[in-house]
Amino acid sequence: MQIWAVGGGKGGTGKSLVSNGLGIRLAERGCQVILVDADYGGPNQHTYCGLRKPASTLAHFFDRRMPLEEIAMETHIEGLRLIPGNVNSANTDNFNTAQKQKLFRHIKQLRADHVILDLGAGTQYDVLDTFLLADVQVGVVAPDAMSIENFYLFLKNVQYRLLCNVLSWTGLKERAKSVWRDRAEHGISTSRDWIVHLRTLSPEFSEVLNREHARLQPHIVLNQVREYRQVEMGLAVESAVTKLFRIEATYAGHIRYDTDLWQQFGRELPAISHGTASTLHQDLERVTEAILDAKRRQEASL
Ligand SMILES: Nc1ncnc2c1ncn2[C@@H]1O[C@H](COP(=O)(O)OP(=O)(O)O)[C@@H](O)[C@H]1O
Ligand SMILES: [Mg+2]
User: Fold this and answer.
1) What residue stretches are annotated with the AAA domain (predicted)?
2) Alpha helices of the chain — where are they, by DSSP H?
3) What is the domain extent for residue 131?
4) What total number of domains does the chain contain?
């Protein structure tokens, strides 16, 4: 089973649209797919799926210990099931660490070929940890400066969170803090110097950090493209991310802005599945294919 996470920082860029589209495309290929509405504070996957008032949601997992498999509901698309977010209140927002770990453990045990996590906006730990859980990390950006800026900030936070996690796992957290406090003594002025120093303190830390860092390979999707010349922005983001964060990012392609999409909601039908000739249908197919190809290449090179 592969876990996908669709994130990117800014709200409104199309994370939910892309998660939904990936889910539909993978299901149409004959895979068993479960979409999880992991936008804990603002769930709307059920609306993309054209489903009204889900009977059970993630709140039932947290409050009533209902198994995720039971919450997963059929959608209008064969092979695609949905675990809706808590649509009634915001009490799945800011759950505690034990609850989060329990949710992650149960997500890993789901019976499906692909589990797709639709993330919320922002850089809260819950969002970052859910992104880090995934085998396939998808970053959605819109072709505008604010969205791209927020995506860089998102990745910076992901990278920092990953470092903190590795420090905890390897028991180096307190030591790392004290090194940073006395950084002048150690000749450390940047966070990069700090990490180099920490690596000399523990080969285990260094090894785990390398391993976890190598797993950070975001697939960039440029959504809401209105003009052809915007397409190149995806490549620019790919090369900036590779350079800035020293990670292997790949541009999975663009999705055009669909002027009819807004009319497809509230009809108890999947919103983005209208007309197989639609640009959304074609673009999502191309992007899904590109991500699967890149993933195969990454796995072959390991
Ligand atoms: N390619 C697109 N064409 C037309 N409308 C889009 C497109 N992508 C997103 N939208 C619309 O923009 C809004 C935000 O998209 P959404 O997927 O909810 O973003 P996010 O999950 O990142 O907050 C929604 O109303 C959605 O229907
Ligand atoms: Mg969303």
Assistant:
1) 1-149
2) 15-28, 45-49, 58-64, 68-71, 97-108, 125-133, 145-169, 173-181, 191-201, 203-214, 232-245, 279-300
3) 2-139+227-232+254-300
4) 1
